[in-house]
Amino acid sequence: MNDTHANSVGGTKSHRIYLLLKDAILSGRLAPGRKLPGELKLAEQYGVSRVTVRRAMQALNEAGLVARKPGLGTVVLEQPLDATVMTASVANLLPNMVKMSKASRVRLLEFCYAKPPEPVRESLGLHEGDKVQRSIRVRMADGKPFSYLVTHVPEYIALHYNEADLSQTPLFALLERSGVKVDHAAQTISATLATHEVADALEVSVGSPLISLTRVVYDEEGRGVEHLDALYRPDRYRIQIDLNRTGDEAARYWEPMAPEPRQAEAEQQA
């Protein structure tokens, strides 16, 4: 399925409705074969005109998400699996970084040295004037892009590898080859909308919802060795969090599960 057809509705109200209905279809909330409400009902639901709804429905039809059927109206179509869905477990963060690198390939868009933005400089614990190696990569599975990665690595580490290395070898492996002893990472997860540049790289429409992940990796001495800003297509990437119910009866709560020792060891060796 290609999203370039949606450019015809741009950043308008019809594009917003298109994205909302597309998300409902791809997430399964609107199942294959289900009839969509009529133009009038959708217009009332979203507070827009019927013309706006009609444009959104046309974009959905061009995307292969719905079809008009005589006597039935507009129905949701069955969607083929058009890419492997990558799954990352929060409990096994570092092992999963290795597994994902081996299960996908990367396209390097940018490689340069520059002074980092202030938030990146602070998170890496660098001094003013220090430089970092900045790269932009698109990671792909089965030839389909699923992540847009912007990384910053301190210059003193990045000098151990070059552009050709990064285009062929996972950054995690290059860090270890450079003598870095990776110990732990801090990670936050949010959501954002695709800009023109990101949308083009991930083959989605401008304004499409994306998973936003920021990760700072530290070595055994607590020094920041990598800052990652990653954007993921939610239809091709998911984050898994396994939880345990714990606490006494008066104050029960959910707690993230620690990885099983044997499982973590096996994934480290994968």
UniProtKB/TrEMBL annotation:
Key word Transport present: no
Record field: transmembrane: none
Superkingdom, natural source: Bacteria
CDD domains, from UniProt?
WHTH_GntR
Q: Where is the HTH gntR-type domain?
A: 11-79
Please provide the record's keywords in A-Z order. Answer: DNA-binding, Transcription, Transcription regulation
What this protein is called in its record is: GntR family transcriptional regulator
